[in-house]
Specification:
single chain; five-stranded antiparallel beta sheet; four-stranded parallel beta sheet; 21 helices; 22 strands; elongated
Length: about 625
């Protein structure tokens, strides 16, 4: 008997007893019944008789290379889940390719009669929690040992050390599949970069900082109401059609949102009666929205003809980007942390214990109390620690500058700070409703007056060193015309795509020390050279080649190159392994130093700090003295 079905591409597939005889498990009297189909697979019920005892099996058949890999992924996913939670999932039995039906591949498992009803939350959520709590990644990393498929979409399951990096890889991969399958997506312009560089780090990095740790948990990967039911023979919940990997357990819940399917808040609450919400708990709802957004991306790629899926993705991205425009900077850095944020304190304590002695903070960041607490509790003598703090923006009277500095000193629990600049109203940054700072343009151009007030702080012992930030040559020349004390330091953006060679030479001539912020790049903002091209943080091939030759990371090569130019560097590191890695620098050969320094001569310069977006004008213009 032949059993035929037609695929969405018009292909007809015949499955008969002769072909099934290729599978040793089925070398017995049998019947085969078509059991529905989808856009990417055929399915059958196979009943086998052995000694008058009938057993039933479910078999999927898919075509082509992707079909083979998707069935392999389903077998491996189901096997991994079944090994942890047993009959909460079907028992997988085998997979492979038909010899007599070229290009056709199969997967089969035990057959279950299913009802259309959703399982009750209590038993269902208990089993999901068991899967997450009891599973162990074989290598302790996030990912999976084979590619798994959501429908006919291959997932990027490459193992990574951090959940943030794994999620970013998958997010980028899914956007790429959307473009391949659905064509250009103009509405993504700007949103994709903001999600990758701001939103995702802001919502996921705190899960793995300040001593926190995520245990990679085995997830189903596509657990929605269509992939779960009640097994009528046992009256117990059953999950199927997984596309598994090891992940943050809460990722599973991103597909449970009531607007996506029939799961209600009852399921969330019941699940969390077994597994607490991850810290920081205040991010929970937005993390879940981010995870749900990833599922919407998959739906948009699966069904590109349904425009509402793309619309939902764009709406979700806009909401998160608007809420987190500054990304992780506003959470920890130490740049930007709310007052009372113990996470800042923990990170500073850890860095101090590993040898860090220079910390960059500011009054406006709201974290000086935590930095001061960490330094005091560390027991390290104050004279061994260098603190850079910044006052706000536009005061020029000595009394106002002194008041702002006194407030910083009180918060930091110190008698002095070696670097201060830019005071502002009420010692904070006043902002417009859109988040941009309120600027008094006339007073901002009078920065030599601010400098004169700061010089008096040195004379009366309130500060030992004073400096500036983001000053170009034009502004330094003007400042030096009236300054009695030259700036001790100028903190500016420096990296291989913006080596600042002319500024470095000028500052050395004037005995002004340069300090590099954003040494590893970020989101490209200003293309200084029209021939420049850089899609994101610095991952230059030349630097990668040099890194391989020294058996170091590209970040270590970049930081070593900066330090070897006698420039101080302040990388914003929050992962503990990066904090350690950034201390392990090396001496580069003259040839490698020159090779990195010449990158811009071939590829152009790029500035990542975008003043136009933040304040509306270019503070780095060498032809016009814009406000600072």
């Amino acid at each position: 008997m032949d059993f035929e079905a037609e695929s969405g591409t018009g292909q007809r597939l015949a499955i008969d007893a002769l072909i099934l005889s290729e599978i040793p498990f089925f070398n017995r009297p049998l019947t085969v019944t078509s059991h529905g189909s989808s856009a990417w697979a055929f399915s059958y019920r196979i009943d086998v008789c052995d000694n008058a005892i009938w057993e039933s099996f479910f078999m999927k058949v898919s075509l082509g290379d992707h079909g083979r890999e998707s069935l392999k992924g389903e077998f491996e996913s189901t096997a991994a889940i079944h090994a942890v939670v047993g009959d909460f999932s079907s028992k997988p039995i085998g997979w492979g390719s038909f010899k007599q039906l070229p290009g056709a591949h199969y997967y089969f498992c035990r057959f279950h009669e299913l009802s259309d009803e959703l399982p009750e939350p209590e038993e269902f959520c208990k089993e999901v929690a068991n899967l997450h709590l009891k599973s162990e990644a074989p290598n302790g990393k996030f990912g999976f040992h084979v590619t798994t498929y959501n429908g006919d979409l291959p997932q990027d399951n490459t193992y990574t050390d951090t959940w943030e990096q794994f999620f970013i890889n998958g997010f980028k991969h899914m956007i790429k599949l959307n473009i391949i399958r659905g064509g250009p997506w103009p509405a993504l312009e700007g949103l994709e970069a903001a999600m990758l560089e701001k939103v995702i780090p802001r919502l996921l990095r705190p899960l793995e900082t300040a001593g926190r740790f995520i245990k990679p948990a085995l997830v189903h990967g596509d657990l929605w109401c269509g992939n779960t039911a009640v097994d009528t023979s046992r009256d117990r919940p059953l999950i199927f059609d997984p596309s598994s990997f090891y992940a943050h357990n809460e990722y599973e819940l991103g597909n449970w949102r009531p607007e996506r399917n029939k799961f209600s808040r009852r399921y969330f609450n019941t699940y969390h009666s077994y597994v607490p919400k991850s810290a920081p708990e205040e991010d929970y709802d937005d993390r879940n929205a981010l995870y749900s957004l990833r599922f919407n991306l998959q739906a948009a790629a699966l069904f590109p003809e349904v425009s509402s899926f793309r619309d939902s993705v764009i709406d979700g991205m806009k909401t998160l980007v608007q809420k987190y425009p500054r990304g992780f900077e506003e959470y920890l850095g130490t740049f930007q942390g709310d007052a009372g944020n113990g996470k800042v304190k923990e990170a500073v304590l850890y860095a101090l214990s590993k040898g860090y002695r220079h910390f960059d903070t500011a009054t406006a960041y709201g974290n000086e109390v935590e930095v001061g607490d960490a330094i005091r509790e560390s027991g390290i003598p104050r004279n061994e620690i260098f603190i850079t703090t910044k006052l706000a923006q536009t005061w020029h009277e000595e009394s106002d500058v002194e008041k702002a500095l006194d407030q910083s000193l009180e918060a930091l629990q110190m008698d002095y700070v070696p670097h201060a600049y830019k005071p502002g109203p009420a010692n904070t940054t006043l902002r417009h409703p859109n988040g941009k700072p309120v600027i008094d343009y006339d007073m901002s151009r009078r920065y030599p007056e601010t400098w004169a007030a700061m010089e008096k702080l040195v004379y009366n012992g309130k500060a030992r060193l004073i400096g500036v930030s983001n000053f170009n040559i034009l502004k330094l020349r003007r400042l030096l015309e009236t300054a009695k004390i030259p700036p001790a330091v100028n903190q500016v953006e420096i990296h291989p795509y913006l080596p600042q060679s002319e500024l470095l030479a000028f500052c050395r001539d004037k005995q002004i020390h340069l300090m590099a912020h954003q040494p590893l790049g970020g989101r490209p903002a200003v293309v200084v050279n029209p021939n420049a091209s850089c899609p994101g943080p610095i991952f230059d091939l030349d630097i990668a080649d040099i890194a391989r030759s020294y058996k170091k990371s590209s970040a270590q090569i970049i930081l070593s190159w900066i330090v070897q130019r006698n420039i101080s560097v302040i990388p914003r590191s929050v992962h503990e392994h990066h904090i350690l890695e950034n201390l392990d620098l090396l001496h580069l050969s003259n040839n490698d130093m020159e090779r990195i320094s010449n990158i811009t001569s071939l590829k152009g310069e790029i500035r990542y700090l975008d003043p136009m977006d933040h304040i509306g004008f270019n503070i780095f213009d060498e032809n016009a003295d814009e406000p600072i």
